[in-house]
Design goal:
The protein is built from 6 helices and no strands. With about 140 residues, the chain is mostly helical.
């Protein structure tokens, strides 16, 4: 039983690391959004919290998840891809908030979609290594 669990953890190690860092990024994003939304309009608060959490996410993804060197190239790819997901983020927030859905629920629901998209782009484009290309 112990060996089975150990093998599963080893097999999905990168995905587990991504989920942990993803959850931390969502927490950073959500807490910043809720704090900023007290003083700013929702979409402005969401955009600022987005940019700050992207910085956090880049370093955690590069160092802890995909274990690749931090570089200008990967940073700009990462940042560019995240700008694309900002459109989905703000669009989803606008849609849900215009339907009078709770702010925290809206933020969490949109973040689930964003996490999945970010993992796909990060894994197969931004942090792709030569080892990945040989698979």
């Amino acid at each position: 039983m112990y060996e089975t669990i150990k093998n599963i953890l080893k097999k999905y190690e990168e995905t587990i690391r991504y989920l942990i860092c993803g959850v931390l990024t969502v927490i950073v994003n959500t807490v910043l959004y809720l704090l900023l939304a007290v003083f700013l309009e929702d979409i402005i608060a969401n955009t600022i919290s987005f940019f700050l959490s992207v910085l956090f996410a880049y370093f955690t993804n590069s160092i802890f998840v995909f274990r690749t060197p931090v570089s200008k190239e990967t940073f700009f790819k990462f940042f560019g891809m995240r700008i694309g997901t900002l459109v989905i983020d703000n669009g989803g927030m606008w849609l849900l908030l215009s339907m009078n859905v709770n702010k925290l629920f809206s933020k969490c629901a949109v973040n689930i979609i964003i996490i999945v998209l970010n993992y796909i782009f990060s894994k197969f484009w931004i942090f792709k290594t030569r080892k990945d290309e040989n698979k």
